[in-house]
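Researcher: Let's do a round of design. I'm pasting the structure tokens now; please hold your answer until I've finished.
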């Protein structure tokens, strides 16, 4: 897959160097400018959302400039009732072009065959594959994006602290995180200023703790 920034045929060192230069160019720019730049180079951009805390910020900022962009949601089936109400509210308020992907097995079936293994249990990798990674790969294979808007931020996990506004996925897709340098307070201000909802009662069984990766952004 080719990009206007990171092109095929370049070495990994060249790609990283070019990405670093672009990150320097975007450093200090507001999210709306980062999004405008990203959309100008993308042919098939998508947004992914878990509808966790502060999800409305990215969804609002991107769809304000690209109302029909595909929004991908991997619904594990384990979300809280508050998360589902929050998601439905945002989908309606922002008129999202939502695409929902779910695991192949139901929660009831998995409760009998696997349950929710602890993160120390070797079976947790199987659980994560079933409820998050397989549906995510299926979604990406269907949409085949060249640019992926995410709401990852510095300070969330040790891994994310080593990323930047722009990064590359394991499959070489350009990931753009317009709010990468925003704190929780910055996002609260954005949400309040734009009259957006927020919900903090969120549960991700693949992470179980807030500072752990679920596998999608590893």
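Researcher: That's everything. Go ahead.
Model: Designed sequence:
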């Amino acid at each position: 897959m080719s990009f206007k920034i990171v092109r095929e045929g370049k070495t990994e060192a060249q790609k990283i160097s070019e990405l670093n230069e672009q990150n320097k160019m975007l450093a200090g720019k507001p999210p709306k400018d980062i999004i405008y730049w990203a959309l100008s180079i993308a042919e098939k951009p998508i947004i992914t959302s878990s509808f966790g805390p502060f999800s409305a910020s990215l969804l609002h900022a991107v769809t304000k400039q690209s109302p029909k962009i595909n929004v991908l949601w991997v619904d594990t089936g384990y979300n809280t009732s508050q998360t589902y109400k929050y998601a439905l509210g945002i989908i309606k308020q922002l008129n999202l072009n939502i695409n929902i992907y779910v695991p192949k097995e139901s929660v009831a079936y998995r409760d009998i065959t696997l349950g929710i293994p602890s993160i120390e249990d070797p079976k947790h990798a199987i659980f994560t594959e079933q409820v998050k990674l397989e549906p995510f790969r299926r979604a990406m294979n269907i949409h085949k994006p060249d640019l992926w808007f995410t709401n990852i931020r510095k300070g969330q996990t040790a891994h994310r602290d080593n990323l930047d506004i722009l990064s590359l996925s394991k499959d070489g897709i350009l990931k753009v995180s317009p709010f990468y340098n925003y704190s929780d307070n910055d996002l609260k201000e954005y949400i309040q200023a734009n009259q957006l909802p927020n919900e903090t009662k969120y549960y991700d069984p693949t992470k179980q703790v807030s500072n752990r990766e679920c596998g999608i952004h590893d």
